[in-house]
Design a protein that fits this description.
The complex is a heterodimer of chains A (397) and B (252). With 397 residues, chain A is an alpha/beta fold. Chain A has 12 helices and 5 strands. Chain A has helices at residues 54-63, 82-97, 111-118, 136-169, 177-187, 192-216, 223-261, 264-270, 275-312, 318-328, 331-357, 363-395, and strands spanning 8-10, 27-33, 36-45, 69-80, 101-103. The radius of gyration of chain A is 35 Å and the shape is elongated. The N and C termini of chain A lie far apart (103 Å). Chain B is of the alpha/beta class and 252 residues long. Chain B has a domain at 99-162. Chain B has 9 helices and 10 strands. Chain B has helices spanning 47-54, 77-84, 102-113, 118-131, 147-158, 177-194, 205-211, 231-237, 241-247; strands at 7-18, 21-32, 36-41, 62-67, 70-71, 87-90, 165-169, 197-201, 214-219, 224-228. In chain B, the strands form 2 sheets. Chain B has a 6-stranded mixed beta sheet. A 4-stranded antiparallel beta sheet of chain B has the order 2-1-4-5, covered by helices on one side. In chain B, a hairpin with a 2-residue loop joins strand 4 (62-67) and strand 5 (70-71). The N and C termini of chain B lie far apart (38 Å). Classes of the chains: A alpha/beta (397), B alpha/beta (252). Chains A and B meet through helix 8 of A and helix 3 of B. The complex binds adenosine-5'-triphosphate (ATP) and magnesium ion.
Chain lengths: 397, 252
Amino acid sequence: MRYHEGKQTIGNERNSIETGGMMEQARLIVTPGGNGLLFQLSGSWMLQGGVPDIDEALQRLRAAGVVKLVTFDCAAVSGWDSGLLTWLLALAEYCKEHGIRVDSSGLPAGVDRLLALARAVPARKGAQRTEGKRSLLSDVGNDAIDALRITGEFMDFFGETILALLKMLRGRAVYRRSDLWQIMQDAGVRALPIVSLVSFLVGLILAYVGSIQLQNFGAGIYVADLVGIAMIREMAAIMTGIIMAGRTGASYAAELGSMNVNEEIDAFQTCGFSPMEFLVLPRMLALMLMMPLLAVYADLMGILGGAVVAVAVLDLTWLEYFIQLTKAVSLADFFVGICMAVVFGNIVAVIGCLNGIRCGRNSQAVGMATTSAVVSAIVMIVIASAVLTVIFDVLGI
Amino acid sequence: MEPPADAHITVRNLTMAYGDFIIQRDLNFTINRGDIFIIMGGSGCGKSTLMRHLVGLKAPRAGQVLYGGESYWDSDPAQQHHLKRRFGVMYQSGALWSSMTLAENIALLLEQYTDLGPEQIRRVATLKLALVGLRGFEDFYPAEISGGMQKRAGIARAMALDPEILFFDEPSAGLDPISAKNLDDLILELRESLGTTMVIVTHELASIFAIGSNSVFLDPETKTMITTGNPHTLLKECGNPKVRAFLTRGAA
Ligand SMILES: Nc1ncnc2c1ncn2[C@@H]1O[C@H](COP(=O)(O)OP(=O)(O)OP(=O)(O)O)[C@@H](O)[C@H]1O
Ligand SMILES: [Mg+2]
């Protein structure tokens, strides 16, 4: 008889480690018969022990030429779990695609019922995502389109915040005064310790680095000019901006983001409250009011840091330092600093809220929104400060 | 074609999609005044999505949603705002505002849209919470109450302004049988006393037959509705095996 000719055993190398004789190796023998194939399964078909690769079985099917029927003999199977099921499911899918009939009568009791359940609901058409192969060019193109879209979104959002602000000035915006108060407190007073520490140290570092150079020329007194102008014009605003981006912008993004996940923002919308007025406006207002105050405070702390170096390292007196400072710094410098602080406050609030409101509906998206809020706020602060510096320079302020 | 006189919401050729992914297409049905309208269908077929379209949160890909003849998406913002004032919505997740207590959640709406004083507002909020069995929880925050309680509090907030149309997304999911029964009674009572139109997404067969006066059945496979009508009539007359299986828990 030709019956045994095509007999072939597909072993399983992964299973070669002895498992104490407890588990027999899963084995598959494929025998052709008539216009069908007989799959003889033996051993333990468990996920733990490992089952033969489905591709090998499919290869056998393909190699067998025209096959109309697949039958099973599982008399020697000593145990099975999802390992067998997944293997069978893949085989059954292949057979269905190629019009091969599957006779499941030889399968262990229960297996065919579970298989039937697994195949009861057909895969939703269009639901499975297919990741096509993408080229570098299309990646670059997609990124560019994304970047444009994000810029557009930011502009839209910014425009809407301005509209909300105008509405508030006319007394028509709907928000809770108590919310505004709370948010202002959180963005203002509670930020003082970290702002103190950072700006004091920045002033100290500036003075220290500067003093080493200035001492070479015997011009140590000018450390007051250095610290004063740097802090008041730029550094105080930038440092507080960055601190607020990490502290407050992130918290806005996370807060609004999780409100979005929880459908709370939808609820505001259907209740006729504009999220823009109710959620974004108070936050933007709070930061635009608090940032300049924080920046002035940071000015003072930075100058104090400089003074410590001036007194301790350069042997100046406190009075000398402060007199030199008042000579060096003009009101215009102060105005420039305040201006920057207002702009940075706006950037932090708008970017934080934008990322929160546009956040996806899962917890991972909240994390991403927070990260993106901090990173883009810091980038925007640096860019804005460069632009403003040039503008003020051109204006001669 | 003018909608019939007592039509409250008319859906015409509505197609819903997220990006390129069509959820349902060519929906056509009418919700009459005083209907308790059930949206039925298997999990993931687009019931919540349909509700988002009905309450004006998501723009249709194609087609229209008309409220007594006015199309929501063709109106100007002032008109849209006016339409929205007539809705009360309870979301699948409750969606209570987490930074406010239950009473404040309800009070916010009353403060905004009525002339009531704080004392009265407090009393109304207490009443609404009592109606859903949450008397005494006024000063709890949403995070401090259970999932089923959050659902009920969400229902109380949806009812805050006695809206013309109430939308509930799976109100009885996660409720014990007694609370679910009480909720059904409340829904029937609101319809009787205030004439509220209700649109309810639910899987509870008991509820569907106890309260539903009209319904639509969405099918995820063909991506469109199979039928619309009173659930009792559908059970008796609809020949579609999917609808029969749904309404009999797969027994027929
Ligand atoms: N934001 C989204 N983006 C893309 N697809 C979505 C989004 N939300 C829902 N879907 C898809 O829309 C389909 C319908 O979702 P929907 O939430 O409306 O289902 P449902 O009928 O309410 O289900 P359930 O009974 O489980 O609540 C789902 O297949 C889902 O994958
Ligand atoms: Mg849903």
